[in-house]
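User: For my dataset I need records formatted as: sequence, then structure tokens, nothing else. Please produce one.
Assistant:
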Amino acid sequence: MKRIIFALLFILIILVLIFYWLDHEMNAVLKNEADGSNEYVVILGAKVKPGGIPSQSLKNRLDAAVDYLKRYPTVKAIVTGGQGADEDCTEASVMADYLIKHGVAENRISLEDQSTTTYENLLFTKKLLPDNTASITIISNDFHLKRASILARKLGLKADVVAAPTPKVINTKSRIRERLAIIKAYTRGQ
């Protein structure tokens, strides 16, 4: 019985250490802040509400993108995201409309509108990039950037980041779920 208790305690300690290590990893990637040196910024999609209204997470990403694109007027944007079963239109189309309404020239925006996952966002985006592109900037909510960077690297792309704030109402849930997704990205590559 002592062996079982010791084994369970050992497993619990390992899980707690992994939990905190992953939190550290999610925060550490934020130090790799973009400086406008990459030609392309990839804005990762998120939930679109009925009527083509960006969720708060997506709005935060788009606001960060507008600021970044205004600061670096030669950078081109790729907006990503297909249409979920409960969405009226593609995430990419909503994102492009938002950027245009907020002063980003339409000719600076490309749409990747087929993806349904973060991995697909980056995989399909890579096909839109010129062949010699080795580095991109990724814009997403802060909790999401570590996994996005891992997936970009697995696809042969270096990435720096622009962090959008995560809405407080979903922050805890998102960070817990993201830890599992990071483990999946490390182990399965998706």
